[in-house]
Automatic annotation (TrEMBL):
The keyword Nucleus does not apply. Belongs to the peptidase M13 family. GO terms for cellular component: plasma membrane. GO terms for molecular function: metal ion binding; metalloendopeptidase activity. Keywords: Hydrolase, Metal-binding, Metalloprotease, Protease, Zinc. Residues 161-366 form the Peptidase M13 C-terminal domain. It comes from Oesophagostomum dentatum (Nodular worm). GO terms for biological process: protein processing. Its cofactor is Zn(2+). This is Peptidase family M13.
Length: 368
């Protein structure tokens, strides 16, 4: 039975290379390495760990539903749910318009893409941890012979996070995300679209990036693309590889890996395009006009772009930046702002930039 079962292995090439590597490592070397990793993670250079903090973290990670319920009861503003649902629906509607308007997809593949837009979401420490592990493993094995469902996701609602799960064709915005700087129900709507709206668009676009494109509307790995349309897709996304890959990051003089960051770059740009489309409509309505004290000279649409930049404000240490450039699938934060906005002609127009200037270039990268 097991020999006949077809399974999908995530990161199959990584697993294969790890197996090849381990086959050439002797047992003593491997044991020494594992001992050293355990030592450095538990003892070396660390202060005494707080057992109470460990218990809270493990409980929240392993018992998502229970911990999430407590978080929602104590900290979540349920009045914001309708506002967030409307925000996501607006951005999804804008993405659907962008999808329908593009001229590089055939009719049949567009219809399949539209279907994808129908997203769905003991007594001792040792014994408790082991019981939780057994329960999680048992639940995983129970899923082996079952088709995908889209009614569960294994993450705590209290996390400050949003994600797309290709295997379930599911996008989720955690309750922990519904707080400043990403969302504030009392702010003008267009500011929330510049933050959480772009995040929602980002996750929607992940369903159509270099990885998400290989999953169908049910979350199964399946080729639903017309051959010519997929070649167009491959050609258009290379623009982002070249654009980001040509950037030498200031201070460290290291280039961004355009290929490794490809999926996130596609999602950043697609998410901004969808949210900006909604923002432009809001900015045209008299009822949506407002003024921020100290920034009276800016327009409502300019506020939208400025608020997007605001959520990425921060300072990164040189060592951290080098590590991100070597391992992270996201580009450094400043490029998630400047490159993304330079690819939006609406930004250049809103700020009166000269055509051909760095933030309003003649040529831009666009996929969705």
């Amino acid at each position: 039975m097991l020999a006949d079962r077809e399974v999908r292995i995530s990161h199959a090439l990584t697993v294969q290379r790890m197996e090849e590597f381990l086959s050439n490592v002797d047992d003593l070397t491997l044991a020494d390495y594992l001992d050293w990793k355990e030592f450095t993670s538990q003892v070396y250079g660390l202060k005494g760990r707080n057992r109470a903090d460990d218990c809270v973290t493990l409980t929240a990670n392993m018992f998502h539903d229970i911990a999430g319920k407590r978080y929602l009861e104590r900290h979540f503003n349920f009045d914001s749910i309708a506002t967030v649902k409307q925000l996501v629906d607006d951005v999804k509607g804008a993405f659907l318009e962008m999808l329908s308007e593009n001229d590089w997809m055939d009719y049949k593949t567009k219809r399949r893409a539209e279907l994808k837009l129908d997203f769905n979401e003991q007594n001792t420490y040792y014994e408790i941890v082991m019981a939780a592990e057994y329960w999680m493993q048992d639940r995983a094995f129970q899923k082996l012979d079952k088709l995908n469902t889209r009614d569960k996701f294994d993450v705590s609602v209290s996390e400050v996070n949003a994600f797309y799960d290709g295997s379930q064709n599911l996008i989720a915005i955690m309750a922990g995300m519904l707080q400043p700087p990403f969302f504030n129900v009392s702010l003008p709507r267009i500011l929330n679209y510049g933050a959480l709206g772009v995040v929602a668009g980002h996750e929607i676009t992940h369903g159509f990036d270099d990885i998400g494109a290989s999953y169908d509307e049910l979350g199964n790995k399946n080729n639903w693309w017309d051959d010519r349309t997929y070649r167009n897709f491959e050609w258009k996304k290379q623009c982002f590889d070249v654009q980001y890959g040509s950037i030498i990051v200031k201070d460290v003089h290291v280039a961004i890996d355009g290929k490794r960051t490809e999926g996130e770059n596609i999602a950043d740009n697609g998410g901004m395009r969808a949210a900006a489309r909604v923002a432009a409509r809001l900015a045209a309505r008299p009822s949506e006009q407002f003024i921020i004290a100290g920034l009276e000279d800016y327009t409502t649409l300019q506020y939208f772009f400025m608020h997007y930049a605001y959520i990425w404000c921060g300072s990164t240490r040189r060592a951290t930046l080098l590590n991100k450039l070597a391992t992270d699938v996201h580009p450094p934060d400043m490029y998630r702002v400047n490159v993304v906005l330079s690819n939006q002609p609406e930004f250049g127009k809103a700020f009166g930039c000269q055509k051909g200037s760095p933030m309003y270039p003649e040529q831009t990268c666009t996929l969705w």
